[in-house]
Sequence to fold (64 residues):
Amino acid sequence: MKNLKKLNRKELEKVNGAAGPTRCAGCPRGTFGDGPGYQYSCAAYNGLPDNCKMCVLVSIECVE
Fold:
């Protein structure tokens, strides 16, 4: 059986393509959802580019 090396968090982020600060540059900060507790609507979330969608907090109701 092949020995597998344990990866630390930084190495794992490189493999998985984590949403780090450089990937989130230019993306809005805030929460997305329908209701008074959110800064932006679900329609605004659905209009975001894919790379920004993994950088924001979103309500489950907005995910299609």
